[in-house]
Specification:
two-stranded antiparallel sheet; mainly alpha
């Protein structure tokens, strides 16, 4: 393994373990707590897509007239990930993005999407993303999470974007959580099977093939540049810290819901 990758992984491992062992997962033991989790997690799914497209914009030509941009190997890596994330299949074979699949899972589980929709509507109206984050009613943890992501995107440093995408994203949900969801799906058939499929598809596509592609992309973009690896490491650390704060916010809302005995 590349020595820079080894050093980066070593530095972020304590934060990864914090996320994998986060108390959030133990709190998700009924459909109400799952709905709250999904209402937080969907923002991570959405901004993952935004990170992905920002990388595609930086590393390939997405304007007219077309001109070759950057390294063909890097273009191949990011374009292959985009195809899988933006136009995958649901359990019935229909084409859709992973974000759209997640929305279907939320609808089936009865998780509220009004805050998310209000946020997306604000962006569609022409407002800048960072302005929309501040103007829409969202929890502080979600706002902080999105602000980190879109500030990173605005800086337009491809190696930093690649590091956040590779090390700070969606391979952090532990096997224990998958077991919880499997048990809940059996107890409540027809309520969360789309979410279960999303998780299984995530493991199959994102957790294996895409993670290797993303790592190769990060290595290519950083090369042997010590400063780039330093910046990439710092960004990965901040991304993981941001995810921990997002999960802290979800836990707080779940605990508050349970203490009031109010369905989510």
């Amino acid at each position: 393994m590349n020595k820079h990758v080894e050093q980066l992984k070593s530095q972020i491992e304590p934060l990864r373990q914090q996320i994998i062992a986060h108390p959030l997962y133990a709190q998700i033991n009924d459909v109400g707590s799952l709905r709250i989790f999904m209402q937080y997690h969907v923002f991570a799914v959405w901004d993952f897509m935004s990170l992905l497209k920002s990388l595609q914009n930086e590393l390939t030509c997405t304007s007219i007239p077309w001109m070759p941009v950057g390294n063909a190997d890097t273009r191949f890596l990011i374009n292959e990930i985009v195809v899988g994330e933006e136009s995958d299949v649901d359990q019935h074979g229909n084409r859709l993005s992973h974000f759209e699949l997640y929305l279907q899972a939320m609808q089936q589980a009865g998780a509220a999407t009004d805050h998310l929709q209000s946020f997306l509507d604000t962006i569609h109206s022409g407002k800048d993303v960072l302005e929309a984050i501040n103007s829409v009613q969202l929890s502080p943890a979600i706002k902080s999470f999105l602000q980190f992501t879109f500030s990173t995107i605005a800086a337009r440093k491809s190696h930093v974007l690649a590091a956040v995408f590779t090390f700070g994203r969606e391979d952090l949900i532990p096997g224990m959580f998958h077991s919880i969801i499997e048990d809940m799906d059996q107890q409540m058939p027809g309520t969360i099977d789309t979410f279960r499929y999303y998780l299984e598809r995530h493991i199959e596509v994102d957790g294996d093939h895409h993670s290797h592609l993303a790592l190769a992309m990060t290595e290519q973009l950083c090369g042997n540049d010590e400063q780039k690896w330093k910046e990439a490491t710092q960004a990965a650390v901040h991304a993981l810290q941001s995810r921990i704060r997002l999960w802290d916010g979800a836990v707080a809302d779940i605990v508050a819901m349970k203490s009031k005995n109010v369905p989510a």
